Amino acid sequence: MSVLPLVFTSGWASGINAYAVVLLFGVFGATGLTDEVPASLQRTDVLIAAGLLFLCEAVADKIPYVDTVWDTVHTVIRPVSGAVVGALLAGQSGSLPDLAAGAVGGSTALVSHLVKAGTRMAVNTSPEPFSNIALSTLEDLGVAGIITFALFHPVAAASIAATLLVLGVVTVVFLASRIRRFLRRRARGRVVSGPG
Q1: How far apart are CA 18 and CA 30, in angstroms?
Q2: Burial of residue 44, with CB atoms counted within 10 A of its CB: 0-12 exposed, 13-18 middle, 19 or more buried
Q3: Is 87 within 8 Å of 98 (Cβ atoms)?
Q4: Rama region for 126: left / alpha / beta (φ>0; ψ in -120 to 50; rest)
Q5: Which long-range contacts (CB under 8 A, 24 or more apart) does 98-103 make?
Q6: What pTM does this model have?
Q7: Comparing C-alpha atoms, which of 151, 139, 187, 140 is closest to residue 10?
Q8: Closest Cα to residue 16, out of 154, 161, 125, 131?
Q9: Which tens digit of pLDDT belongs to each residue from 14-69?
Q10: Cα 32 to Cα 38: distance, rounded to the nearest angstrom
Q11: Minimal CA–CA distance to 167: which of 129, 120, 112, 102?
């Protein structure tokens, strides 16, 4: 399946910023930079919605703790988006290969989303907001770069995405103690602010 590297890469990127993936694919397709993008992603209403949601994410993702709430809500949205984009990139026939591409895109998006959310929980334990802003900006630039690269060099981009995914999982495992500390602190905060 020649489209599989592009599906994998778009799944990885969707787990970080699904709206940027849809927006970038749509713009690249609508401007004629590539013919790999399905027409449904190039529609004006899809581009406007993706652009507005991207702007919302760009703001929410840079505010400590707001980003955690945003990530929680997107635990469903990002994998579903990765699956839909993957299936659309593979074709729209509803065949088994299309469904398999959707599964690859969705599962890759879920893992990369969990890495992002876990990393953010660890970063939110630092007292200053600048690391959060820097990490969010780096993620946005990374998604833009990898999607652009994937359209012209899908296999190389998929290799980069796979490497980043593995490194992300290793980082989250390494930061697990900080994440547990964050959750304990948050739970204590609920007890203190709870009734009574």
Answers
A1: 18
A2: exposed
A3: yes
A4: beta
A5: 100/1, 101/1, 101/3, 101/4, 101/7
A6: 0.84
A7: 151
A8: 161
A9: 999 999 999 999 999 999 988 888 999 999 999 999 999 999 999 998 888 888 89
A10: 12
A11: 112
Is residue 26 exposed (0-12), middle (13-18) or buried (19+ Cβ within 10 Å)? buried
Q: Tell me the C-alpha distance between 71 and 48, whole Å.
A: 22
Chain center to CA of 6: 15
Long-range Cβ contacts of 89-96 (<8 Å, 24+ apart): 89/3, 89/6, 89/7, 89/10, 89/36, 89/37, 89/38, 90/1, 90/3, 90/7, 92/38, 92/40
Tell me the residue length of the chain: 196
Q: Residue type at 131?
A: S
CA distance 120 to 131: 10
